[in-house]
Amino acid sequence: MCRSKGHARILNCVESSLDKNQGMKGFQKFFAITDAKKGMKDMMKANPAAQGDFCRLVWKISDIPSMPMSLRRYFEILHDEVASLRDLENAVRHDQSLSARILRIANSSYYGFRGKISSLSRAMLLIGFEEAKRICLSYVLLDLSRDSHALDPHTREQLWKHAFAVGKAASLMAQKRPWLQRDEAYFLGLLHDLGKVILAVHFKDHFESIKELSLKSGVSFYAAEGAHGISHGRVGRWVGLKWGFPEIYLEVMEFHHAPEKSSLHKPAVTLIFLANALANSRWSPQLLEEEEIISHCGDLFISHEEWMEYGEQMARVWREVDVLWSTLN
Ligand SMILES: [Fe+2]
Ligand SMILES: [Fe+2]
Question: pTM here?
Fold first, then answer.
């Protein structure tokens, strides 16, 4: 196992850890290695004082397993343009717990068939392919923290409800933006804070002290991270690289608090930045009128009127989030 703190050694270890990722295709692997190296060099330059901490963090992240099989299976279906509802149903059928939840959702008052749907096929048909995909991905992502003792139930609920809300808000905005599919918008929103979940589960001390600093000084979690020389955005990119996520996910995870830094997928990153603001406006309604937010609305040609409409729709979004949360847990 690699333990040296030397930069060259670290980069070699990054390379060999990525080499072990059997599921990664050639071009992705090449990208992952070069990008991970560059990312690490940048991080080291940016905050030399935090190098000791950072190195330890890197080694620990290297211990995070490859993408869980269930997540990989659904991720493939979600990104397969010819996949059908039947493919999804076949995948769900292997998971009793998920099948039961899909049945529960189909029989909920939301669909108006209370207690009448008894087969998975009918339930999936009723829910529809798009919604079923969202439910499946939300469910398998919850698995990342389901049995974690590191995460207290309140933090877990906060993190995931926020992710669901950002996913739904992003999907809402994508409705009027043909350059991004609603599905993909939802998945990007769902995954945008994956780095925060990883920090909370695997680096509890870092997570707690950032949270404490944020509460004490009345600044956002993102702002408080600066003092630790690490950010949930970068942790998200690192895990995304390791799991072979497409570049658009990596950019969203890394830059959703600063979309201007994004180079390849700025519109999608901006959309998630705005969806994040919509979700956070539940606790800080003044966010909707902040100059920085309004200026990013302009980048996506979102008028003030359209933006305010999204703000109003968030009450309904949060009700849906509560239902989804209670059904999937
Ligand atoms: Fe974030
Ligand atoms: Fe967020």
Answer: 0.80
